[in-house]
Amino acid sequence: MDAAEKHDGNGASEALPPPPPLPENFTPLKVDAAPEAKKVVRSPMARPGLGTRGNKVPLLTNHFKVNVNQNDGFFFHYSIALAYEDGRPVDGKGVGRRVLDRVHETYDSELGGKEFAYDGEKSLFTIGSLPRNKLEFTVVLEDVVSGRNNGNASPQRDESNESDKKRFRRPYHSKTFKIEISFAAKVPVQSIANALRGQESENSQEALRVLDIILRQHAAKQGCLLVRQSFFHNDPKNFADVGGGVIGCRGFHSSFRTTQSGLSLNIDVSTTMIIRPGPVIDFLIENQNVRDPYSVDWAKAKRTLKNLRVKTIPTNQEYKITGLSELPCKEQLFSLKQKNKDSNGDCQAEEITVADYFVNHRNIQLRYSADLPCINVGKPKRPTYIPIELCTLVSLQRYTKALNSLQRASLVEKSRQKPQERMTVLTNALKTSNYDAEPLLQSCGVSIAKTFTQVEGRVLPTPKLKVSNGEELFARNGRWNFNNKKFVNSSKIERWAVVNFSARCDARTLVNDLMRVAGMKGLAVEDPFDVFEEDNQYRRAPPVVRVEKMFEEIQSKLPGPPKFLLCLLPERKNCEVYGPWKRKNLSDFGVVTQCLAPNNRINDQYLTNLMLKINAKLGGLNSVLTTEISASIPMVSKIPTLILGMDVSHGSPGQSDIPSIAAVVSSRQWPSVSRYRACVRTQSRRVEMIDSLFKRVSDTEDDGIIRELLVDFYTSSGKRKPEHIIIFRDGVSESQFNQVLNIELTQIMEACKFLDEKWNPKFVVIIAQKNHHTKFFLPQSPDNVQPGTIIDNKICHPRNYDFYLCAHAGMIGTTRPTHYHVLLDQVGFSPDDLQELVHSLSYVYQRSSTAISVVAPICYAHLAATQLGQWMKFEDASETSSSHNGTNNGAAPAVTPMPKLQENVRNSMFFC
């Protein structure tokens, strides 16, 4: 072996030859580093111009003009550090405002008499600087909500030392806090004016944040519940009971926005869910829908009550619930110290039940709670027990779990407001907010107009539709019907059967009526093989078992695999069989299926609506755009164009180990813009950016979503690659626009390049937002704005390319427009052509005979994500998520992959 090959245990060479000597006057050559490929960072495009098409219409909007008279000062930003007396950091929410209020009261002169805006956490802002860059204060707060006990509340297990005994006797518990205020940055007020000129920066965003924090602090001083920029007063007039111990609390959203016409204050009605205040036991009985306290599921109650705040009778002291006692009140023991001392001078202690203590030592009679668990407001190792009937839930506590379908329906019913009613409520809200009296806004020279901003809208022409034999379908007020008309492309219903999961109906009559209506719409319908009724013995079996047994029955009696199954369900909402049934059909057998829950209102209109879905699922089309048939959609009909709709669906609040579900739908059979297929994947929970658009698994293989959709477009569109790709993205906020452009779009581009290095399609990226607070009103009219109303001036972004579109007819409440943001347009659409394309795509939704509020590809993506989410049986795990995480060492739970669809349904509109 050579010396150079001999290595020690650490991999070092034992005997290498010395390097050769360098000649004199030797100058080493510098090797040029390989040039780094410049990474392109994309940002949202600027507005290329305004649209002009359509009939102009004057409108009002819930934006109130704001004047800022001082532009030469600075907001000074200070960071706040709160600690207890012993140096431990304060991590409890809510106490920060009380501490800073006390600092302001006590140390006004040390603060130079300055008013400040505090965000409730770690940031404080002033107009002009404080006297010093670093300030330290100490304050004492009485009656701090604490897990510890006091003499007028309830017993604790162990009062071990003298200081604890003193605290036990104190009528109110006080705490000392240390506050450190340190200079962090200064933000020029001028940056707001710069933003209004389209020169956005971190400073301008921070300056607007300061103004929003001032609004939050103003509301906090009025005793409001704060939920981001929405504020809720403790006024029963604003409460609407939605059942289950939950109340819809109406409040107001209020935030500053930069617009083309200057700074504006956007005020809108907002609703949040709160726990019904009052006796704890009343809430539990209603929440669990049981008859009396003795029927309550206490394991479930423990999860529901944790961290809620209660006041106790008769002391009116406030506590946070940490748990429940393991034993009933009459059996739960604790150690009570006696006043008498023994011969050694120590206090005697006796074991006593909680019920005995309250009845005999406190003279409080217990009516029913002796047999029920106690509320624990102490710590796990040092509990403090209070009988449940002495506890009442305080008001304005948010309910953060998902509402059931009945609660959602009740909330919608009780919170809807017609346009004129909403305008009156908002005008009154601005008056009662009394922002003019806010000293910090006065110091900034901010004044707010009292009237709604006037804007100019345009009502775009209604897109024309075609049905069978080239017959035109006329939409009026965003609606049309198929009376005496046949679908433009009718499918065939063959090799099919009906299954009935114990729905109460005459299945044979329903089938005959459905076949009659299908024939009227142009569908060719064979007689069904059979109607399969569920065996009574399986009605109470688990959902998966019920589905398995039904399929065994179908397979044993049918001559071959069916192409279509009509499924009758006993309940319209939340039927447990729905998810397993869909999964079995689409993933295991590749069978198209349509579910319905029969009721007394099944008529020809109901059955026509059902046929819209069935026809689309089986490959037909109900109606199409006239411009689609005549190939006259600008930039789309003449050049191969792929349209994508992207959405991510997240689990309900409180379900910690349910992954997020990403869905992308794509157009197919170009030049059609009405046919779509979907690709759905799971990803890490609460992750909004889709991470599997491009998924390289080898040098020649990409397992991402986009490749699958591109290949389908190519094969279904006459072997043409798309030269234009138009992306509609739902569910992202303005702070995530750059991520869509630089993460998701980059993945899509990589997927295209991986298929063909020389292929350079042009991209358009459009965000659709429904979760905003801008509304539009017709002056002097009780009606909603007309379908097709578009607004791209005055209250839109001062630089970026955005517009509001009300494509649909608002039949109930006040129309909510969709806010579209065009982040990128490499194709070069004119504003009019792009706006008309977006409007037209609200008319190609095959599930209904109405224009919809957002483009169809986004609705389809949402439907696909929601439907496939119900396949996955995550719900069982979600109830015990905390115990799972306990054994997972804090790691994120593994993401369960989505089951794949069978090939014969993969390209169908199964989600319709």
Short description:
By secondary structure, the chain is of the alpha+beta class. The chain has 22 helices and 41 strands. A hairpin with a 2-residue loop joins β10 and β11.
**Given the C-alpha coordinates, what overall shape results?**
globular
Radius of gyration: 33 Å
DSSP helical segment count:
22
Report the mean per-residue pLDDT as an integer: 87
Give the neighbour order of strands across the main sheet: 35-34-33-36-37-41-40-39-23-1-38
Strand fraction: 25-35%
Largest sheet: 11 strands, mixed
Q: Ends: how far apart?
A: 72 Å
Structural class: alpha+beta
**Can you tell me the residue ranges where pLDDT is under 50 for at least 5 consecutive residues?**
1-13, 146-172, 874-888
Tally of DSSP β-strands = 41
* Helix content range: 25-40%
| Oligomeric organization of the protein chains | single chain
Description:
- This protein has 912 residues and is an alpha+beta fold.
- The protein is built from 22 helices and 41 strands.
- The strands form nine sheets. It has an eleven-stranded mixed β-sheet, sandwiched between helices.
- The radius of gyration is 33 Å and the shape is globular.
- The termini are far apart.
Give me the secondary-structure topology.
Blueprint: E1 55-61, E2 63-68, E3 74-84, H1 95-106, E4 116-118, E5 123-127, E6 134-141, H2 162-169, E7 175-188, H3 190-196, H4 202-221, E8 225-227, E9 230-232, E10 239-243, E11 246-259, E12 262-275, E13 278-279, H5 280-288, H6 298-305, E14 309-312, E15 318-320, E16 323-328, E17 333-341, E18 347-353, H7 354-361, E19 373-376, E20 385-386, E21 391-393, H8 405-415, H9 419-433, H10 439-443, E22 446-448, E23 453-459, E24 465-466, E25 472-473, E26 492-493, E27 496-500, H11 507-520, E28 524-525, E29 531-533, H12 543-557, E30 564-568, H13 578-589, E31 592-596, H14 604-617, E32 624-625, H15 626-629, E33 641-649, E34 660-667, E35 676-683, H16 705-716, E36 724-730, H17 737-755, E37 762-769, E38 776-777, E39 789-791, E40 801-806, E41 818-825, H18 831-840, H19 856-869, H20 875-878, H21 881-886, H22 903-906
Parallel strand pairs: 26-28, 27-29, 27-30, 30-31, 33-36, 36-37
Antiparallel strand pairs: 1-23, 1-38, 2-12, 2-22, 3-5, 3-7, 4-5, 6-7, 8-9, 9-11, 10-11, 11-12, 13-21, 14-15, 14-21, 16-19, 17-18, 19-20, 23-39, 24-25, 24-32, 33-34, 34-35, 37-41, 39-40, 40-41
Helix pairs in contact: 3-4, 11-14, 12-13
